[in-house]
Amino acid sequence: MRRFVGGRARVLDVGGATGVHAGWLAQDGHDVVVVDAMPSHVEVARALPGVTAVVGDARDLPVAGPFDAVLLFGPLYHLVEREDRLRAWREAWRVVRPGGVVPGAVIGRLASLFDGLREDFALDARYRDVVAHAVRTGRHLPPAGTAWFTSAYFHRPDEAAGEAREAGLDVVGTFALEGVAWLRSNADLDAAHADPALMDCLLWVLRQVEQEESVLGASSHLITAARRADG
Fold first, then answer.
1. Going by CATH, does the domain composed of 10-109+156-181+211-227 fall within 2.40.50.140?
2. Domain locations in the chain?
3. What's residue 101's pLDDT?
4. DSSP one-letter code for 60
5. CA 217, CA 115: separation in Å to the nearest integer?
């Protein structure tokens, strides 16, 4: 995010939940507005210094622009229908200023496949059925009562860019968020977080392949960055 927004900016965090991103953005000096569908999330986000928060829907934003940046880090994978995702992208286009940035986060199409391998979920035949359906259609539909995430849509690496373009935005690029690093054990990742030198090395490795098309699909999350054209 910091690579796309410089100086003090007006930022809209759509689906920002309790302010996990809004908090550090405000600390960076940006004016941040959170929109989230959950009143309990909005209440927590509203208490953060420098953050304004309102209840609302990504498909019909209750705020006016222009914003320098509109973050779609929360809603896109929860909107299973393509038309709903396009509405969210179009709403971001509506409220972002010309030249402003719209980064959108999605879950990768193969995330449940790799997660099942990493956590041994795939030993359960029901999980295999869920994964096979998700890989084929993008729709992750776990049975009730399981701990296999929630109903969601999983994107192919180039899919979110196509949605952003259809909504009228110019695509800057698609980036792997975790890359292949998330396939390491939780213990390995905890150790990296506790060791600045190890974390610096890990981030360096990830940056080398963050836009490498041949490995984008291995990342559990992808970010597509787009801009509204000037003029």
1. no
2. 10-109+156-181+211-227
3. 97
4. B
5. 13
